[in-house]
UniProtKB/TrEMBL annotation:
Matching Gene3D superfamilies: Phosphatidic acid phosphatase type 2/haloperoxidase
GO molecular function: phosphatidate phosphatase activity
Source organism of this protein record: Cimex lectularius (Bed bug)
Biological processes, Gene Ontology terms: phospholipid dephosphorylation; phospholipid metabolic process; signal transduction
This protein's name: Phosphatidic acid phosphatase type 2/haloperoxidase domain-containing protein
Pfam families given in the database record: PAP2 (PF01569)
Entry GO CC: plasma membrane
Subcellular location field: Membrane
Length: 258
């Protein structure tokens, strides 16, 4: 007979798989395109030049998904060994308890942010530089007019699609969510309660990293400042929600047979 742990793992697996499939569909589907918003030739906020991305998606995933996952797993095993002087299936179950909520939270917020980007279609600061619309903004009739009837002449459609997905900033959201979650995670750990100064230093460092990543998106002309602020706000909300949701989610750290 299945025990409660197996039921839970199966349920978690189904939820995680569904979220992952939905995220892949949203990211790869050619039919899901952002809302095609018009523009004003006098809008200087979308006339910035495109810059090479300094923070690539691989960099984002590595630093704010893979690295925190390994950190949580290693910390849980060290703490379990310190108290029990052994590593057994209960240690793995503790790792699972901590990691599954963090990863699920990151994937969920990523998916929601992608859907918001598609629905809003806010133009990035470098939109005109990438789109190259078939509209001459120097003509008097095009000045001070909101233009909706235009075509982007850039042949690279993926670049144009990306230029329409500025709000909210996913980089700001993911980096803030990951660092906020780890800060909350360290706050509750018994071992860290004895080394308060080191804990505060790590938390301050994490905060600085998230701010750096977020501000860098503005200096790279990748997002407007409003996109970054909203992304950081959503990231903090998700971090607190998933962290405190975990307290009720973790009904028992030790697997028990029925």
């Amino acid at each position: 007979m299945f025990n409660t742990v197996r039921y839970r793992v199966i349920g978690d697996g189904i939820c995680s798989l569904c979220s992952l499939v939905m995220l892949v569909v949203v990211l790869t589907s050619s039919t899901l395109k952002p809302f095609e918003r018009g523009f004003d030739c006098e809008d200087i906020s979308i006339k910035h030049p495109e810059k090479p991305p300094s923070l690539t998606p691989i960099w984002l995933i590595g630093w704010f998904l893979v690295l925190p996952t390994f950190f949580i797993a290693i910390y849980e095993m060290i703490e379990y060994f310190a108290y029990n002087h052994t590593l057994d299936k209960n240690a793995l179950y503790r790792v699972y308890n901590e990691v599954v909520v963090f990863v699920f939270g990151i994937c969920s917020s990523f998916l929601i942010a992608e859907i918001i980007q598609l629905r809003c279609g806010r133009l990035r600061p470098y939109f005109l530089d990438v789109c190259k619309p078939n509209v001459d903004c120097d003509l008097p009739e095009n000045r001070y007019r909101y233009i909706t009837n235009y075509v982007c002449t850039n042949a690279v459609e993926s670049d144009v699609v990306m230029a329409r997905k500025s709000f909210p900033s996913i980089h700001a959201l993911i980096s803030t969510q990951a660092t906020s979650y780890i800060s909350l995670y360290l706050q509750m750990k018994d071992i860290m309660k004895t080394i308060v100064l080191m804990k505060r230093f790590i938390q301050s460092l994490l905060f600085g990293v998230s701010v750096y990543v977020s501000v860098r998106r503005i200096s790279d002309n990748a997002n407007h400042w409003g996109d970054v602020l909203v992304g950081m706000f959503i990231g903090i909300l998700f971090a607190f929600y998933m962290f405190y949701f975990m307290n009720s989610y973790r009904t028992n750290e030790t697997p028990k047979e029925e």
